[in-house]
Structures are given as structure tokens and as C-alpha cells.
Amino acid sequence: MAKHSRSRAPKLNYAHAALGAVVIAGALVPTQIAQADKLPLADSPRVAALAGAPKEDAARVSAAGKAQTKAMPSAAAVLAEAKKQIGIKENAAGGGTKFQNWYVNSQRARETVARDGGSVTAYANAAWCAMFVSWVGEQTGARPQVGWDAYTVTHAKWFKANKRWGQTPKPGAVVFFSWSGSKSLDDINHVGFVEKGNGDGTISTIEGNTGNGVVEQRVRPTSQVVGYGYPTYSG
């Protein structure tokens, strides 16, 4: 979850969490990449099934999944919550946002430290684009569908493992970027929400930890999109 350097040209290249290292006292500490996918990203019935839920529980998991889907907010509600956060900015140390503070105190932080190594407190000043997406999911009740993590690559792989991954921009979709134009999930640099596809090779988005460490609306070229994760919203 190390941050990129804060060079201002370009402004786009420091906004993701890296699994290969964590920041502790200003140093990069290697982590255990082999453990990356051992823990489920969200406590959804689908993830429980992927994690090896007993076969006899299949009916219960299916019923729970249907009930959970009905309880999900709409894409519009999730985007409205994300939009309310526009303008929130990190401090000079790269921290101080409510998104990072929430993650530090979450159960997921302890799980991702167990997976990646490092310290829970390191998230307080880590790149927070994925924490922003996760926080919005938590606040709106959409976390089981939006997922939660501090590492963009694992977040994307969770969507793909749950067969909710594709190449079409949809309002409320979670969009994953690679500034190099790579289509490999392992090369993902950044994440945000899709507001809409613009039909001209660009998408409108709401993203955290972009520009100079701010929540902003952006227009991005689809050439930088690796793919989209699709939460199952109520409408």
C-alpha cells in the first residue's frame, strides 16, 4: 500500500495501494504476495460460496443472496453519497481523511494486514482511492456488493472471481485504471466510481485520492480502463 511519489506532472500516478510493500516509518517493507487471495473481500453469500461454504448450505446461501440483493441501494444512491465527498482532501502527510480513519478501525484492515503484512496504522497515510470506494459502500449499505479493500488489484480480482467483471461502463460501476493502458489486473493503479459513459471514448467518474489527494469528478479516457466491477444494485 505504498504511495507513489507526489510529482505534479503527471498528477495521476500516485493514487493506488501496492500489495508488494507497505509504508512503515517512511520505509518500504516487502509483504507476502502469496497470501493475496486467501481472505474474502466482503461478507457476501457469493464470497462465502467461493470460500468453500458447505454444499448442504447452498439453499440458505442462495436465499440470503436474494434477500441481500433486495436490500441493496440503487446506483443513484451510491453515486449521490460519493458526490457528497467531492472536495475532501488529505493532509500534508497523505492522511487525515475520514476514509483512511474508517479503514484503520475496520475489521478489513486487520484482515488485509494478515494477508499483506505490515501494520494497521500504516493505512492512516496510505493511498486511499480504494478506501474511498469501500467507505462509500459501507455508508450506503452496499458494501457486500461494492467490496472493501485498500489494494486495487485484489479488489478487481474479487469482482472477477464473483463473475461481476466486464468492459462496459455503467453508472455506479467500480472502474479500475492502469495509466500505462495495460489490460492486466496486476497492473491496476487506481479505482473510482463510474457516473456515466460519455459515448466518445471517455467516462465521467467520481474518485478519491486523485489530483493532489482530493475527491474529484473526472473525465477519463477508456484507453486507461482495465475493466469494471459491477455491484448488484436495486435499480
From TrEMBL:
InterPro entries: CHAP_dom (IPR007921), Papain-like_cys_pep_sf (IPR038765). Residues 104-232 form the Peptidase C51 domain. This is CHAP domain-containing protein. It comes from Nonomuraea mangrovi.
